[in-house]
Amino acid sequence: MINNSIAYSLLFSIAKGDVFGKDQPVILVLLDIPVMMGVLEGVVMELQDCAIPVLREVIATDKEEVAFKDLDVAILVGSMPRREGMERKDLLKANVAIFKSQGAALEKYAKKTVKVLVVGNPANTNCLIAAKSAPSIPKENFSCLTRLDHNRARSQVAMRCGVPASHVKNVIIWGNHSSTQYPDVHHCKVNMSGSEVGCFEAVKDDAWLKGDFISTVQLRGAAVIKARKLSSAMSAAKAICDHVRDIWFGTAPGEFVSMGVYSSGNKYGVPEDLIYSFPVEIKNKTWKIVNDLPVNDFSRSKMDATAAELVDERDTAVTFLGE
Ligand code: LMR
């Protein structure tokens, strides 16, 4: 769905090669609701006017059978936003309907190899519903976006250490893309003047890393909304590009990134049948949970708290699936 500023930023980045490379021809298929078709036509015109050589075609549609036909990658950006007076349950119910329908359309029309990234909130549970509604597409092909949280954590540490974000690697976001997520720096490394040191040693402020750092990342989405009166768009689009590019080309040796993925078979004791954010390494377009990291008691309780929230969301959401 195109009706938002995340997609508006994202389309240009994809078209100019930030995700699939500068030489890979792309066809963009834009799906939105019927009332947005006029606006979408304007976006199509703008994309044409960018005169980008690899952008071969732009298709705008309000029909799922057109939008999902033979897709290689589906980025599901739109969802029902929470409005005033709406209970969490109402929001979940509306989103279950959307993601059930999009999952069913993927099942029917997309390639079985399609990679599906869910961005619209509540992203983890929406992703789970889409995956459940597309039983013939492997569960491993579905993921939800926590790269924005990952990037936020990376940048907070980088700013604190006075180094570029590229000098900080292997932060982890565990769990839900919500305020219960756990941004973890126990395995993070910072390149300080050419040598790689642990994050705690680099930052030299354990109280900050165990306190304000965590809450800043957890509440960053809300802080941006408060300041901008709009939710994160530019940074969300950048995170989507990072996420899909890593699926396409793989992660750098010795580096992992955070992605919401199917929890089944994980070695961290996270309940099965959730889309939970883990550290993952990616090779040949396939992610693998980095399963052997030690977890201390501090981390354990935070990982469990966000898992409990996801179990609760899932259990509520599946009650709406049959409706
Ligand atoms: C974010 O993390 O910026 C968003 O998910 C916040 C929101 O609710 O739109």
UniProtKB/TrEMBL annotation:
Annotated EC: 1.1.1.37
Domain of life: Eukaryota
Catalytic residue list: H177
Catalytic activity, reaction form: (S)-2-hydroxyglutarate + NAD(+) = 2-oxoglutarate + NADH + H(+); (S)-malate + NAD(+) = oxaloacetate + NADH + H(+)
Binding site for NAD(+): D32, N95, V119, G120, N121
GO MF terms, alphabetically ordered: L-malate dehydrogenase (NAD+) activity
Family under the similarity heading: Belongs to the LDH/MDH superfamily. MDH type 2 family.
Protein name stated in the entry: Malate dehydrogenase
